[in-house]
Amino acid sequence: MRAGRSLAEDAGEFLAQLARGRNAPWRQLVRLEEADTDAKVEIVMPESRGRAHLSVDKLGSVGEPDSLPWLKATAEAMLPPDRRA
Questions:
Q1: Residues 28, 41, 30, CA angle at the centre, nearest 5°?
Q2: Structural domain for 66, as ranges
Q3: Is 15 helix (H, G, I), strand (E, B) or coil?
C-alpha cells in the first residue's frame, strides 16, 4: 500500500497519525467542558504552520474537603506555642 499511495512511512503509522489528528479536537472540547464558567478559554493559533491548541488559564476550585479544618488544627497543635498562628 505504501508504494501505491507514495507514502514515505508505513501505512499503519500514517493511519495512526490521521487518527491522532482527528482525536485532538475532541480532547480539546472535553477540556473546554471541564473548565469553570468564568475560566479564560481561547484557541491559540501558532504563527508557524502548526496545530491550534486550547488554552485554559483559570480552572474552578475543587473546594475544601471536610477533613482539612481538622488537619490544620491538628498540625497547628503540634507546633511549639511560639510558632502557632
A1: 25
A2: 2-83
A3: helix
